[in-house]
Amino acid sequence: MGQLKLKKHEDILNNALDYSEQNDVDDDPESYVVVGQDFEELVSLEGSVVKDDEEAYQLYNSHAFRNDFGTRKGKKEYRNGTKIVRQRFFVCAYEGFKKADGVVPKSYKKIDRRTGCKASVQFDVDKKTGVYVLSKHSRVHNHSMVPANKRYLIRSHRNISKEQLTFLTTFSYSGTKLADVLRAMRKEVGGEAHLGFTIPDAYDAVNAEKKKKLDGCDSNQLIRWFATRQANKHGFYNDFQLNEFNQLNNFFFWREGRMQSDYEAFGYLLIHDTTYRTNKYDMICGPFVAMNLHTQNIMFGVGFLLNEKACSFEWLLNSFLTSMGGKKPVTIMTDQYSAMEKAISRMPDYNCKAHSWIERLYGLKEK
């Protein structure tokens, strides 16, 4: 049965490769909202009874979806001297106004379209039973609603189910491009509007799952193995990067002692290819290789990265140079990925810009 299901999924992916549709993921649903164009919800939820906080929010959020607006979780009020909830509030996504940012200017700032909307619901929590009773429903909004065909983009109505996340991660870890998997899912449900989430949501969720896996036993065991090898084997070098939460970020770089000797002799040309990916964790495998006098491939080291950002490549290149005593290669050949181009900024040091071929490559770096 498992093989049949997998075969079905593969067929879906194959049929989807030639499927294309307009992708309006970058569309902003809030741009359609008109401030001052009052709207009143036709149905009142007063008197509704639910068992807990989660059901209370789902009740209001489902109602908001039918009426083409988004929601946010509001404040809780507690009984005196306790952590027992007495009242719970949920509000329209346009409630209030955002606080001004700090003094440091941002290169990109999302437009604030909050309108101070007063639409909301109030739940009173029964002291004995703990059930939530919707006691007040303010239904008047001071803005128009989002068009029905854009409401799936509203943040409070977007969610990736466990089944969808499993589907995404399974094919992603097996080497299938996430874009192809998403294309198949869009076709299967009849368009992105029926997915329940946007494309950036999918990438964020898969990356979050990837980081969870890296926080487990495999990564810790590998680091311990490298530490033992470095202590017992002369010339072995490894490095890894942690984020501010003491979690693995760009993972690691390593090389053997023989690799350093080879680099001393043949390191004038360095080839770094980042097109390889591991199956289980979908990490980027970037080997540093070259060629010796017998036209044989030799390896100087290997790095593994979680993403293809310029700062990740910069860390990897710095780690490589540190392991090689700071000796820089004369020439670097890469797959010319844009983030890598930003990380490499050594060409002026060698006064090679007069050469037409190198000048063209240097121009690519400056894009």
TrEMBL record:
<dbReference type="InterPro" id="IPR018289">
    <property type="entry name" value="MULE_transposase_dom"/>
</dbReference>
<dbReference type="Pfam" id="PF03101">
    <property type="entry name" value="FAR1"/>
</dbReference>
<protein>
    <submittedName>
        <fullName>Protein FAR1-RELATED SEQUENCE 5-like</fullName>
    </submittedName>
</protein>
<feature type="domain" description="FAR1">
    <location>
        <begin position="59"/>
        <end position="147"/>
    </location>
</feature>
<dbReference type="Pfam" id="PF10551">
    <property type="entry name" value="MULE"/>
</dbReference>
<feature type="domain" description="MULE transposase">
    <location>
        <begin position="271"/>
        <end position="346"/>
    </location>
</feature>
<dbReference type="InterPro" id="IPR004330">
    <property type="entry name" value="FAR1_DNA_bnd_dom"/>
</dbReference>
